[in-house]
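User: Thanks for the earlier help. One more: Inorganic pyrophosphatase. Can you show the sequence and predicted structure together?

Assistant: Of course, both are below.
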Amino acid sequence: MSEDLFSALDHLAATSTVVIDRPRGSAHPRYPAAIYPLDYGYLDGTVSADGDGIDLFRGSAVGNGVVAMAVIADIDKKDVEVKILLDCTADEIGTAAAFLRDTLGLGITVLRREVS
């Protein structure tokens, strides 16, 4: 069942322009002490629940496609969001999850793509 989801996310990523508006090492706009450990941006031309493009973290494993998705609950904003992890290694998935959970204090669960 989840492979259908990941195939659809791969299609969205392949047919959209990736815009990195917060490069690795840049500060979070609301929390300047929070430094992005990976490139962060969105898929241009897509729409997420907040009305903006689908958020993503982009890692260093070019060609891996969408390897995971993070579902987060932001109590301060009173919303739930989905962020895709594109071209990430297993370590980078953990790094992105720790950033969201430990640095930004968000409730998070990560759904990893099953690989055969």
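User: Great, one quick takeaway?

Assistant: Residues 75 and 106 are 7 Å apart (CA to CA).
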